[in-house]
């Protein structure tokens, strides 16, 4: 297993490089950029942005930020930027230098990669704070949502999927499948809005809070009061987020167990006089769970990133998903590339962890004898 592990770890390097290179290249062709954003706000007489860049932008755009990339290189012709007519070309050049766009694209990319190897992500373009600090501030919210959503999904979906497999074709399987299909067809964000209207609004019931993870009087609450308040705020977001994951995991579990139950070794085990529980949990469970384990890394990353984006917005939860969305909207490239780097690295490492779990669940699997 050691040789296989070493190969997988070494493959992380070119894989990460390829992900960042493709993403960086795509960004070069994306319309807009931080320079154009500042120009647009200047033309709109946004006094806040003027004050932030009036002194050369040293407080907002550090040298670390200059290594973070996004837009293609530009020349002194201000007409290249929409709305730049009438602005001093020297001012445009100073903006380009502050953002690091005065360097060729290939040079900016390698500067970025060199910095990222030491986890130096620089500063956000539009916030006077380091990217790493921003991620640390938003991470607790996403961790709360992601971990609890996965725990609830697995604890409910796996037993329900096993039960559906054992009752395949019976009324229980039919009506639960109907409920699951209907639940899957409802978009999570739409269900979140419905929950807000029904249980957190003035029109119907005011049972749960409509925003945040804690109440305003959090500091004054007792230990058990804080726990209750925390889960009180998490209830509606978790229900909305778990809807799709719950449905998918249940059907995946059912189909995986059905596939194993129909195999010859199950018939043989039953013929030897083993009980259904001995057959199911002594033989079938181990093999059927391999497919569930294989999907864990993707589910983990989705729970912490893409899956919570709209839910965080609807319930005013300031997490990683909302941060990434706002960064894309504002063309805050240091934050975009930093989150991409971190989540890609975590995802690749989790795939290796999943392989270890594979061998634990079924020792017959030998990755070392296979080609990577």
Structure description:
- The protein has 16 helices and no strands.
- With 372 residues, the protein is mainly alpha-helical.
Largest sheet composition: none
Number of DSSP helices? Answer: 16
Distance between the termini: 12 Å
SSE pattern, N- to C-terminal: HHHHHHHHHHHHHHHH
What portion of the residues fall into strands of 2 or more residues?
A: under 5%
Low-confidence runs of at least 5 consecutive residues: 45-78
Average pLDDT confidence is 77
Total strand segments:
0
Helix % is: 55-70%
Q: How would you name the oligomeric state of the polypeptide chains in this document?
A: single chain
Net shape = globular
What structural class results from the helix and strand content? Answer: mainly alpha
Backbone CA Rg: 26 Å
Short description:
This protein is 69% helix and 0% strand. With 372 residues, it is an all-alpha fold. It is globular and about 85 Å long.
Structural features:
mainly alpha, 16 helices, globular
Topology:
Layout: H1 2-28, H2 34-43, H3 47-53, H4 63-66, H5 89-99, H6 105-117, H7 131-166, H8 171-185, H9 188-199, H10 223-261, H11 264-271, H12 276-294, H13 296-304, H14 309-314, H15 320-330, H16 333-361
Helix pairs in contact: 1-16, 7-10, 7-13, 7-16, 8-10, 9-10, 10-12, 12-16, 13-16, 15-16
């Amino acid at each position: 297993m050691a040789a296989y592990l070493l190969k997988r770890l070494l493959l992380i390097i070119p894989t990460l490089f390829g992900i960042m290179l493709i993403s960086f290249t795509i960004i070069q062709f994306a319309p807009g950029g931080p320079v154009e954003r500042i120009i647009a706000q200047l033309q709109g007489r946004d006094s806040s942005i003027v004050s932030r860049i009036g002194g050369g932008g040293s407080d907002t755009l550090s040298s670390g930020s200059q290594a973070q990339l996004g837009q293609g290189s530009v020349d002194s012709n201000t007409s290249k930027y929409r709305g730049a007519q009438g602005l001093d070309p020297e001012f445009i050049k100073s903006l380009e230098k502050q953002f690091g766009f005065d360097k060729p694209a290939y040079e900016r990319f390698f500067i970025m990669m060199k910095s990222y190897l030491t986890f130096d992500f620089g500063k956000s373009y539009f916030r006077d704070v380091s990217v790493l600090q921003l991620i640390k501030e938003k991470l607790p919210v996403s961790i709360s949502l992601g971990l609890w959503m996965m725990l609830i999904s697995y604890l409910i979906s796996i037993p329900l999927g096993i039960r559906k497999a054992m009752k395949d074709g019976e009324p229980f399987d039919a009506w639960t499948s109907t409920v699951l299909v209907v639940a899957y067809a409802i978009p999570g964000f739409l269900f979140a809005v419905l929950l807000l209207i029904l249980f957190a609004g003035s029109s119907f019931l005011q049972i749960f809070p409509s925003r945040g993870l804690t109440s305003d009087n959090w500091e004054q609450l007792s230990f058990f009061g804080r726990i209750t308040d925390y889960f009180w705020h998490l209830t509606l977001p978790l229900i909305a987020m778990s809807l799709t994951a719950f449905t998918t995991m249940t059907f995946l579990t059912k189909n995986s167990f059905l596939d194993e139950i129909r195999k010859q070794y199950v018939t043989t085990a039953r013929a030897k006089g083993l009980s259904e529980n001995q057959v199911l949990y002594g033989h079938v469970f181990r093999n059927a769970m391999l497919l569930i384990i294989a999907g864990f890394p993707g589910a983990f990353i989705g729970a912490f990133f893409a899956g919570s984006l709209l839910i965080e917005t609807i319930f005013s939860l300031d997490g990683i998903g909302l941060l990434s969305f706002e960064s894309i909207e504002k063309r805050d490239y240091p934050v975009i590339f930093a989150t991409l780097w971190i989540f890609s690295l975590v995802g690749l490492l989790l795939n290796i962890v999943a392989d270890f779990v594979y061998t634990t669940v079924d020792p017959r699997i030998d990755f070392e004898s296979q080609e990577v």
